[in-house]
Amino acid sequence: MMSTQDIIDTLAEIEPGSALDAVRARRLQARENAQKSYLSLFEPIDAGDVSLLERAAVAAFVTGLHGESPVATFYREKLAASAGGAALLESIDAEIARGKTSGPYGSYPTGPLSAENTAGLIYRVSAASKPALGARLAAALEHAHLLVFRPRDAAAADMKALLDAGWLATGIVTFSQLVAFLSFQVRVVSGLRTLAAVNA
Asked: What pLDDT is stored for residue 41 in this prediction?
């Protein structure tokens, strides 16, 4: 059954008729599009090449990397409620702890921007977590970490790693959209909750 309540409103605890509700209503199309994106990514009619379990696991990992928040809690609970998800929670939590860092960082091609090159963690899933996660999900977590913290370092070899783990091109597109949406959602919810606190 698809969600009818706006997910960003829910996570930001925006009450109907409140000042923040009015703020969001001024950008009605953006509000509607964000909700449609959530539904298409997390409550699709056809999950296609990316299972609902994989979507929930990646979401729990990505939002967990951003730190404790209502968004991270929501997706962790979503994973726990997914078929087979509870068995992944311990591994996902362990990988969040291993992958936490600050960013973005990475290297630019040789040129004027090279002065801004910043070294940082090159994350790999632990050997202990791989049996529970499986090859596809382990590759997905590593790629998600790359997209969150080292987007400028993404290269053909990273795509090949996903393909070698069993991902199809269409699944990689969906997966990349999911990671981008989550980063957007975390920031929007954080901003709205900060506004609410300031105006309380």
From this structure: 96
Helix, coil or strand: residue 111? coil
| Per-residue tokens: 189 | 């919810």
Using CB atoms within 10 Å of the CB of residue 109, give its burial: 0 to 12 exposed, 13 to 18 middle, 19+ buried: exposed
Q: Which amino acid is at 182?
A: L
Residues of the chain with pLDDT under 70: 1-4, 200
Residue 33 in contact with residue 16, Cβ under 8 Å? no
Interaxial angle between packed helices 89-99 and 52-65, expressed in degrees from 0 to 180 and rounded to the nearest 10: 40
Give pLDDT, residue 124: 96
DSSP 43-109: S-S--TTS-HHHHHHHHHHHHHHT-SSHHHHHHHHHHHHSTTTGGGHHHHHHHHHHH------B-PP
Q: List the structure tokens of 86.
A: 């509870």
Contact 53, 133 (CB under 8 A): no
Q: Which two tokens stand for residue 190?
A: 């954080």
If you count them, how many residues does the chain have?
A: 200
Beta bridge partners of 106: 118
